[in-house]
Amino acid sequence: MMERTVPPRMPARHGTFSRRARLAGTVICCAWRLAAFGSEAAGAGGSANLLLVVNQDSYASLTVANHYAQLRNVPDANIVHLSQVPAGESAEIGALRQRVLQPVLAAIRERQLEPQIDCIAYSDGFPTRIKLWSDTLRHKERSFPFHFKAVGSLNALTYFADQVLAEQADYIDLASNRYMRSSRLGQRQNPFSGPLAGDFQRAVEAADQGRWAEARTLLATLAAAQPDQALVHFQLARAQAREGLTDAAAASLATSLRCGWNDAEALRGEAALAEALARPALAEPLARLDAAPDALLATTGFRRTYCWGANGLRNSTADQGARYYLSTVLAVGRERGPSLAESVAALRRSVAADGSRPEGAFYFALTADIRSKTRSPQFPELQRALGALGYAAQMTTQWAPQGKADIAGLSFGVANYDWNKTNSSFLPGAIGECLTSGGGVIGPGPQTPCTDMLRYGAAGSSGAVIEPFAIPQKFPHLMIHAHYARGATLAEAYYQSVHAPYQLLIVGDPLCRPWGRRGPLTIEGLRDGEVVDGPRVLQPRRPADEGPGVREFRVYVDGRLREIVPAAQPLRLSAEGLAPGSHELRISAVDDHLIEGEQSGAWQFSVGTAAEAPRIEALAGSAPHRVRVRAIPRVALRGEADYFPLRVFQHQREIGALRSANDVLEIDAAAVGSGPVRLRACARRGGRDVWSPPLVAELGDLPAA
User: Fold this and answer.
1) Residue 287, exposed/middle/buried by CB under 10 A (0-12, 13-18, 19+)?
2) pLDDT, tens only, 487-521
3) Which residue among 53, 306, 367, 639 has its CA within the 20 to 30 Å range from the CA of 203?
4) Phi, psi at residue 55, to the nearest 5°?
5) CATH of the structural domain 184-320, one choice from 1.10.10.60, 3.90.1150.190, 3.30.70.1890, 1.25.40.10
């Protein structure tokens, strides 16, 4: 029997799993079982919309990624392995561009994932403090403000990837993030640039001077060109109402509310709109508006394709808005960060918290410390918003809540702390926020790192990677907890809450969504593992609750967005154009709501006869940190030349090959990480790749280096 081994790498220095936690190198599931893939409740940006980035030279990075990919059912196409990642906590901006951002965005393009990737999550093993001096030298004509420090965070520079790759520096501005839900009065400002800004200004001037027909014509043209901009539809409704076009005005108001307009005073302060507002079709959206009496813009779902205008609302074309990538770092295990076991445990808690709707309180610590006082003016707004949801926002004058076991969210500010002394605990999924100068410094530093919050039970936290000064725009607004409790994902809640995030390291599971839906999305018309040999009509179903209905279904095949189907239309699955072998169908039901929560399910199916698809199995008897893989023998083969070689992949990274029925490939955890390692085999037939079903092998840990 021929054997070859995937060469091991030495594990990175990182906390290791307990020896008692090891499992032998055995198969824990086979791809034909639905339970291995299951369903997920996620926000706008479920795992089909997330790109997981892995440092393939880091054992810790591989291990965290293995666990997260399995916990979140991240498609193989959405996992990118990088090599030659800069080592250590700090890196130069040029190295980040060349070795991280450029290859990551290239992978998105090459894998045809551009229409769907909204969030980029980094596994462990990446530099998190990025030095920006070389970029500032390119902008000598610019006067940088006193609060500027030439160090940014990995996730924030990924959020601003378009500007970073263009070597611009606007991301340092204190109002750089247009997705931030700032004052709702801001939505009244001109949302456009260039000629469209002039057209909008002329329309407003015409309306102010009573030339309503002229205003309506200009605004109708703008609405056709920028159908996502809520302000245009609101202004168009005003003009239509003044001309007695009540039905048209009601339709424009409905569109404006659907696109995010939440300026209740402007709506009800215009007497001419009263008749249109009384239409039954507007009763429900107006009730939702009244239920969220914010002074800020409405909590809003995120997509990479959205173009955020100058007024904080969406425009429809890239030339009229800023586009971003949500981003967090899943784990930072270096120096003072959590051990590998603690990092994996935190991710497990976060995934388990989805849809749990924890019954707890949200705490804000107000002390004499400037770190605490900086955000105190925001507390009344948070209290109103959470009260409308039925939750309590409580203030304590101690540095943190003492003896509390019901912390659903926390914001405090202190340089150093020992959480164990509080005798308090977080509910699963909670955000724990400490405003301080160096919480994002995980290496040696004078202040407690933000990763301690994850160690003690929080799902997410953040900290500045360099002195930010006590400038509120650089830290999450207290309304982060209200966005979260309304159903936003953790990443959405963070980036809706920070005006200027460029120095903010955000750690934790970006998809965690405790106040989302719970329970699986199921379908009728396809059983897991079936052979699809003709068109199928599918009927998705999700558990009934009091939430919004479905706006659309997003259909993915093998991890790629295939179509977006309105809820009223039937879903169809066809094998046309698919190669023989194993495939995955994934369906996401998107809520008909501004937050656009999603509920997803994934199912395996095959195309062609069983003999056409390769299959692999794991052999018993390996060491705990190794697995031996071979091809499953076939009786219907036309000869080995039709079947071999089989290339073996971890996600989409080729790690070896099987060249005959007697060949065995030994895979070591040092090369692929420990935990649930997802493997697939690929044969080349007729110029097409034919894939096996996934095989998941549980590998134990390696001895500490």
Assistant:
1) exposed
2) 999 999 999 999 999 999 999 999 999 999 877 78
3) 306
4) -85, 105
5) 1.25.40.10
